[in-house]
Amino acid sequence: MNQATREQAQHFLRQDERLVAACAFELDPGVPYPPESLLAPPEPPALSRRIEARIPRPLRQFVHARAADAHHPRPAAAGDAAVRRPDAAGSRTPHGAGMEGGWESAAGRFLVSRANAHGSAGGVLAVTDRRWFALADVTPLWRSTPVMREFWEVPRQAVSALRAGPRGTAQTGRMDIEFTDGSWVAVLAVPASAARPFAEASVYHR
After folding, report:
1. Are the C-beta atoms of 12 and 22 separated by less than 8 Å?
2. Do 133 and 152 contact (CB within 8 A), yes or no?
3. Alpha-carbon dihedral of residues 198, 94, 183, 112, nearest 10 degrees?
4. CB 3.0–4.6 Å: which of 49, 57, 104, 133 could bond 153 by disulfide?
5. Among 115, 88, 102, 114, which residue's Cα sits nearest to residue 181?
6. Which pLDDT tens digit goes with each residue over 29-75?
7. Could you tell me the pTM of the whole model?
8. Which are the contacts of 189, defined by CB distance < 8 A and separation ≥ 6?
């Protein structure tokens, strides 16, 4: 696994927890965006508010506009999770379905948690000897070093399989996270070549 990705995941390990594998990822283009009613409003941290208060108003407006572009639909951005807003879960795109299950399913909760993280398209998916967890890149625009936030976790037993290159799909790097409740969600490994090694490593201790 990529060393930077490993280090990002290791920062979130608990006492005596061991990292099995980690992979940078983005959501599949076919993944639907959660309904606004399920999303929490973003809450800027205190430090951000203090910094913003010192920024001249024209520059502050520019920063807000850039942030809005990062968190709202950009039709040309293939692979950007938060830019695709089909009307219904499981709706199909030229890439195929990106999700199965309602918003109360394990897959739905993963996507709602991801959207509520208010981060960029990129993230980290990790599996340990105890659990699965995912990180969102929430780096402020003025920071040069990445800032990651854990937005989701489940016990290892909650994921029934991680399938790289599932049958009937053509996207390189695609992985389907399948949950024990029958729901699933598609993600794309970054780089695509990391998909199969990560999927194979994820079965350790299963």
Report:
1. no
2. yes
3. 90
4. 133
5. 102
6. 999 999 999 998 776 655 555 565 666 666 655 555 555 444 444 33
7. 0.74
8. 23, 24, 25, 164, 173, 174, 175, 195, 198
